[in-house]
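User: Hi! Is it possible to get a structure for several chains at once, not just one? Here's what I have:
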Amino acid sequence: MNDYINDLIRENLRVDERDMLQYRNIKISTGVVKNASGSAMVEIGNTKVVAGVKFDIGEPFSDAPDKGVLITNAEFVPFAAPEFEPGPPDQYAVELARVVDRGIRESEAVDLSKLCIVPGEKVMMMFVDIYVLNNAGNLTDAASLAVIAAMKTARMPKVENGELLQNEVGEPLPVVRTPISVTVYKINGKLLIDANDREEQASSASLTVILDEDGIIHGMQKRGSGYITEQEFSDILEIVKNKYDELKSIVDKVVDDGAHEV
Amino acid sequence: MSYEKRFDGRSFDEFRPVEIKVGVIPRADGSAMFKIGKTVAIAGVKGPRELHPAHRRDPEKAVLNVYYDMVSFSTPDRVRPGPDRRDTELSKVIREALEPALLLDKFPYAGIDLFVYILQANAGTRCAAISAASLALAHAGIPMRDLVSAVACGKVGDKIVVDLTKEEEDYEEGATDVPIAIMPRTRKITLLQMDGSMTPEEAKEIVRKGIKACEKIAELQREALKSVFEGGNNE
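Assistant: Yes, the chains can be modeled jointly so their relative placement is included. Here is the combined structure:
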């Protein structure tokens, strides 16, 4: 299979007949889980990821006494791929959660000061949980889209006497930036985006770049047992700039249209 | 306000003093200590050896297992012994930084276990770990295409700097960390991460400077490796 993919890529062709810099069909549905404060299901081709946002009350970190706490986790559901097994998050799941987390945190996408209840004592804890339901490649971009769509449509629970009323919808979550990741894969020396599961197997390396709407980079992560060259790095930065705009307009449209059912 | 002068007086392209010792753990198959400023990493290799559990064996190549951990007293606040989520991620990215340099297909079905402990932490720990690890693997006699050399670069305030200290990472007007590793002979990038904020132009400049600094680290690594073998002290 890898030889077949490599041969195609050499001619700038792909197994599913896409262009090298073309995403599969992207479908985003928000508000898919009513008990979540915010949620979104993202499908990129056959890849399927659901993300949910929930709030709880906790103590702030001592170095940020007036800010809410962000906690990001990813679960690879065992039926999502033959290689996924039950158990605590493995290296790949931990890495995915941490890369997505970095994008939200470093871009200051959420105004965490609005999550403070009593400075130094009581703040809202914001849990962002990602569940991978079907792994058909490019989980990072799918998870990044699901998380930003879930956050942008999330409403915090009401706070009364320092307690959260989980069943009463309060203010929208103050999302002030739009970090989105674009992952560029390298197969047989060529660069392409949105690798499917078979292409991912054939890929030697990838670079995820997280951008915001001003073109500022907030996170990068090279993956895979191969390498990239300095020239490829420059080329990747060009690719991600264009693709960010494409993904951002999809997110904007979904968020503006309001909630969608699955 | 801009960051005009580095806290420790170095120039912006200069890394901290490096000290390297190869073969520091006699009972490991290969080992090395890599010290950069106040950050100290020690790497030990066991293998190639039989891989367990058997279902993880690969008929085409050896499996590299990497365990990165920080000693509980390596930081101002004690860290709980054993790997946390950061260590789990770093074990993976360190493995992927080293694999491109290793000829793992020489040892089908085998396992190579690499353990890296941070004895003392003052920023740049994953890069020190990688620089130590590639020496330990070479010392263990694992066939390699090249060494792997790493250094953390980034931005402190508005300045692009090589090899940030902890103090610089905590700079109050903001700092961005970009760990980079390369195979020095071909300048191929095998580790690249970033968290913070920067423009694509800054990112390119950081990578360019990072590659240069890594090439200098590589010279020091080669010297240290040679001195062990030339000195006849390579048990």
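Residues 2-257 of chain A form a domain with the Ribosomal Protein S5; domain 2 fold (CATH 3.30.230.70). The first helix of chain A runs from residue 2 to 10.

User: Great, thank you!
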